[in-house]
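Q: My labmate handed me this sequence with no annotations at all. I'd like to see what the chain might look like in three dimensions before we decide whether it's worth expressing. Could you predict it?
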Amino acid sequence: MFYLHKSCSYGEGWNVWDKLNSKTRVKGSLYIRNPVEGNEVLKKVINGLLFGTAGIPLSTPKPATSVNGVLRVRELGLNAMELEFVRGVKMSDDLAYKVRSVSEAAKVVLTAHAPYYINLNSPEKAKVEASINRILETARVAYKAGGWSIVFHPAYYGKDSAELVYERVKEALKVIVRTLSDEGVSVWIRPETSGGLAEFGSLEEVVRLSQEVEGVLPCIDFAHMHARSRGEYNSYEEFMKVFNYVEKELGKDILKNMHMHFSGIEYGEKGEIRHLNIQESDFKYVDLAKALKDYSIEGIIISESPNIEDDALLLKKAYDLS
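A: Here is what I predict for the chain of 322 residues:
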């Protein structure tokens, strides 16, 4: 449930969706309730559709720091950047606060990708606890940096049933949401659709988590869905079906608060093999751009192609021309 609270401007790019009156859009603060104690926790919603890069743009002048990356994103005409903590959360508080200041001045919205070393279904308790801590640390640092949303790959199925893995992931997410709420850390927590068949993270699984754990929303990775299905989710009609499914299951307001990834991708019998530049792949990015425009999707879409900024600009151009 969304709650509208006192007025508080975030500047260009931020806005609020008042679920109680879908015709009303005002600048202010968006809150969701802590599922345990009833505390209200600030959550931001994006106004419009923003395009960005997974990490510091490759064309960033040296030194290629997060601060310079934010400035380069703005120079390119993009307006979002995902902080890549995939090898570990290694950003000091001082740097996080500086990144926040620069990104707010540049009107670049930040997200963060948690480390790859996460498995909430590990048979080893210590590894589950370490995975939870990596997600928590990503959220804490992202929040200090002014981040809006964090994404992560939740788990592997291993030898367990999909339902058992789902329940374990759900319980871990409840712990994560409760901990962050108690700490006053307010970023969206988003399990990502996965590209490999051995990985937990079908569209249905991440949407169901969003239904059952408050404070959790999906990250829709179109390349991963294309690879996981070994060729599906790659047409205008299929992209529209994804948005329709998400709207049906989570409500219309989620379409004003989307976090998405895209890229070209190589896949095989077991799903994802590697990311590709979109023009070197079979991914129909023009169809995706048209579906995004026709469904009036808002939020952020991040390029994870090897040439991150080129493909972000390519999709943005296709979207603008749709």
